[in-house]
Amino acid sequence: MPVLPSFSLLCRIAAVAVFAASMPVALAQYADDTYDDRSTPVDELRGSASPGDPVFDDLGDPPTDRRNRRRDFTDGLDDDDGVLPQPRRDAIAEGDLADPDLPVDPETIDAAAEPRPDRIEQDPAEADPYAQLGLRSGSFIWYPAVESRGGYTDNVTETPGGESGSYSEIMAELIGRSDWSRHELEIDLSGTIRRYHSGLDATEPSFSGAINGRIDITEETTIDLGVGYDLTEEDRNDPDVGASDPPLIHDYAGRVAINHTLGIIGLQAGASAARTIYDDRAGGAGLSLRDSTLYEGNLRLSLDTGAKITPFAEAIVLRRIYDNPIDANGQRRDAEGYELRGGATVDITEIMTGEVAVGYRREILEDPSLADLDGVTVSASLVWTPSELTTVTIGAGTDFNTTTTAGSPGSIEQSATIAVNHSLRRNVDLDFGGGVAREDYVGTGRSDDTYSANAGITYRFNRMLSATGSYTHEQVASSTPGADYTVNTFELGLRLQR
User: Are 171 and 192 in contact (CB under 8 A)?
Assistant: First the structure.
């Protein structure tokens, strides 16, 4: 007679059977969790997240939603990016960890392996509790701001032997950006009024405005348009001033450029006009003789192979016309010339962007008694981001300036600057910078060297209010005796923005 198993033995056999049947599901779940954990961003593992961060927004989501969020950071990456491939759930679901080199039958892939919908990314400005959000009006976003500053300087006139004094100023700013799927329009307006309370009885206004746009004709062809206006006061130490109350300078500019892409070749043809008018507010004579208009046309060829650096070559022709063809010294200063330059644009994602170029420019004046104004040109505008907290901006430029000084065709100024911004905390920024410039007045033997350094701090109370403090040092060393001077300026301010 066969021996029947005991009841306890039957229970053990049933438990083993249930355990064996559940193994494939457990292995699949384990593989899924392992994949998700390895693709979790490092920032989500830190303990410094705030209630406004995305990781807190998902605490109440079901487990599947949390896995979807983590998967989004690695979707689309292949094995070469160092991310583990997705587990083969068809093999795991059958209870067999199959050889990964074997082909996969698409019909056996379960629904869990289907692509998951992308998570809606949060606007970086909204994620940062101190970022300026702006005001939306239709398809535009406006960023208004006003700033009140007060300062002290040991040389209010920025001239040799200048007196010390205090000042206050108000700055207003309005920036507008279009939010269109095609085309683009940007508006930048900024104005400042400075009033000196001691050392100098004067009010200095300044303004800068620009409107730039892009029209998308096709994917390969675009048109760039721009107009601008600047209002500044001429330096009191400029050889052309000759008055205790320097004139205001009005600069008007307009440009148009057509861009077209032929495969890896980029073509640009453009034209621009820049007009300069000197406001004779001091009642001095002869300032209108300096008013002029500069016309330029350019052709640019670039080669975009998909690399991080795109080389280009550019040719520019120019014509400068004065309102009065003969100046007070009886010299004709109208000029024509050209500029040739070559360089490269840099676009190394999240590390460095910008442009660098070197060239040669020559302006030939009509009066044979005046020498040509020519020289090597250097231009650079690079933004380097060595870390998420630090940004370094490097700039360089060459300017050809007009003059009415007898015997001189003009001046050539070479300059270089560097600015460092470091976020000490989320709401505290430190700024450091420096610059050097040399201006040679051709035909006069005069040259001025300028050295500058600055440091500043910005403390943001919230999105709308921040406090600023800065210190600036400037030193000018001139080859002309008695023209050297230094300026030290301290400034505090409050900024209100929306």
Answer: yes
Its domain, for residue 43, covers 7-122
Instruction: Show which of 100, 122, 144 is a domain's final residue.
Output: 122
User: How far apart are alpha carbons 212 and 489 in whole angstroms?
Assistant: 34
**303 lies in the same domain as 239:** yes
* Domain identity same for 168 and 82: no
The DSSP element (H or E) to which 64 belongs, if any, is: helix 63-71
Sign of CA dihedral 65, 67, 69, 71: negative
Report yes or no on 1 lying in a domain: no
Percentage of the residues of the chain whose pLDDT score is greater than 90: 61
Tokens of 6: 């005991």
Helix-helix angle 7-38:63-71, to 10 degrees: 40
List b or e across 416-439, with b for residues whose CB sees 16 or more CB atoms inside 10 angstroms. ebbbbbeeeeeeebebebebebeb
pTM of the model: 0.73
Same domain, 93 and 169: no
Per-residue pLDDT at 10:
42
Do residues 160 and 116 share a domain? no
- Joined tokens for residue 65: 């939603």
Q: Cα separations (Å) of 434 from 89, 356, 402, 430?
A: 59, 19, 26, 14
